[in-house]
Amino acid sequence: MHFEDLRREYTAGGLSREMLDDCPLRQFEHWLEQAVKAELEDPTAMVLATVDAQGNPWQRIVLLKGLSQGGFVFYTNHGSDKARDIAHHPKVSLHFPWNEIDRQVIVAGSAQKMSMAESAAYFVTRPRESQIAAWASRQSRPISTRALLEEQARSLREKFGRGEIPVPDFWGGYRVLPERIEFWQGREHRLHDRFLYTRDDGDWAIQQLQP
């Protein structure tokens, strides 16, 4: 296969400064709404990049679960690789790859652990099987077989029965407070449109970048 021959033109539209909101979070919400209306698969899926204690970068896809207090929210096990990375290096990056509409959004900022109250408020809205899964999986730790994981989930179903499932003390939310946000719109002939928001004394400055 000749990978260099795999290419296409980006013809979905353009992006100008006049089209942008002065607030990047409002601009993001606008683009996310358009991604949902375009019926993209998993429009809230984002690549989370972290750096571990040895300085090694790692990426994985997580789901955006909200925008609150000026930040991007996701949830995870506090013992997971991503959580341990954040404990060492809170600086992270998020990437929303909306390829079907020739767009991407890149976020750089600091991840902060959310309060137990905030995490609990979200946990009770999760499907019951997702609540069980949060208890059953010691995320990122080795396991000998999948059967053992399924047995852990079965045992928890029996333990909790039909009662309320409490929030695990090893699980919760993180809020990524952005310092830079880039909006990328693909254009023909690789002359893409890029606009970068950066914090400037509490406000946001906007620059257009060359592709």
UniProtKB/TrEMBL annotation:
Keywords: Flavoprotein, FMN, Oxidoreductase, Pyridoxine biosynthesis. Residues 171-211 form the Pyridoxine 5'-phosphate oxidase dimerisation C-terminal domain. Belongs to the pyridoxamine 5'-phosphate oxidase family. The gene is pdxH. Homodimer. Binds 1 FMN per subunit. Catalyzes the oxidation of either pyridoxine 5'-phosphate (PNP) or pyridoxamine 5'-phosphate (PMP) into pyridoxal 5'-phosphate (PLP). The keyword DNA repair does not apply. Substrate binds at R7, R8, E9, Y10, K65, Y122, R126, S130, R190, L191, H192. SUPFAM superfamilies: FMN-binding split barrel (SSF50475). This is Pyridoxine/pyridoxamine 5'-phosphate oxidase. Its EC number is 1.4.3.5. One of its GO terms (biological process) is pyridoxine biosynthetic process. It catalyses: pyridoxine 5'-phosphate + O2 = pyridoxal 5'-phosphate + H2O2; pyridoxamine 5'-phosphate + O2 + H2O = pyridoxal 5'-phosphate + H2O2 + NH4(+).
